Amino acid sequence: MIGFDSVKSALLTSYQSQKLHHAILLHGKKGIGKASFARDLAAEILGNKISSNPDLFLIEKDAEKKEIGVDKIRSIANFANQTSAISANKFIIIDSACELNKSASNALLKILEEPRPNNFLILISHNLNRILPTIRSRCHLIKVPDLSRQDFNEILRQNNLNFAAKDLEFLSEIFDNSPADAIAFGLEITRFYELFLRSIINKKISEELLKKIAEKNFPFQIFEKSCEFFFNRLSKNIGNTQNNFYFEEEKIFTNLTRKLSAEKIFTISDESLNLLRKTLSLNLDKKLSFINIFNLICY
Q1: Residue range 192-233, pLDDT digits in tens
Q2: Is the peptide bond before 235 cis (omega within 30 degrees of 0)?
Q3: pTM for this predicted structure
Q4: Which residues make Cβ contacts (< 8 Å) with residue 169, sequence separation at least 6?
């Protein structure tokens, strides 16, 4: 996998010398392929395809839930008690350990305290601070390096996503070289951000944009990322540290910094980002929240 060569080499060397730790904590930026890498590594060691390997157990958060519950972690014991079907080893992958609730974390800690021979746990983490220190201390921590822009571009190309050079640069920056969201939302967020900027210039939200936001299954990440990206870049422009622009940013940033004081811009930014957080946490109306943020910027 792109960007994982050094990590893979180190882990395979440890396995071949019978020094692979029973619990590995892969941590790094979200969306760079840590879980996919863990599955590929397990497949190589187990010597069989992941989709049909009975010696691999994958634990993930259910789509409709916010956390991984204790029942899923307790099911590891049943898997561990079974005789290996194909390989001498077993792998359990938890994607992600950041999403374990308190009871699940405590149950995992008990498993880590009594490791079973030839059973390997791989924990995926996007935020080490959300994992109990006692869990971290019982794992071999491996920091996955960030992907370069070249790596990011190549992964998108391999997924048959062919963007114009400037759009590719935009996606690389807004997603911080994390390809998972770019693959899922790249086309939509490029169009959304362009319409957002055009609406600010016209001081009128485009009908296409309003329709998008009003859609029942419209991904909140697109709304959230676009607003955060806009205000972050607007703030940089106040200090003249912004030297590249996407779509009609330069015109908007120039107009706003001429019309408003730096203090006012920071106030608008804070109010808008707070509204974003409330919209997500309280499940507020996305369309109404967007209109309110738009009005803060334009009026």
Answers
A1: 999 999 999 999 999 999 999 999 889 999 999 999 999 999
A2: no
A3: 0.86
A4: 244, 246
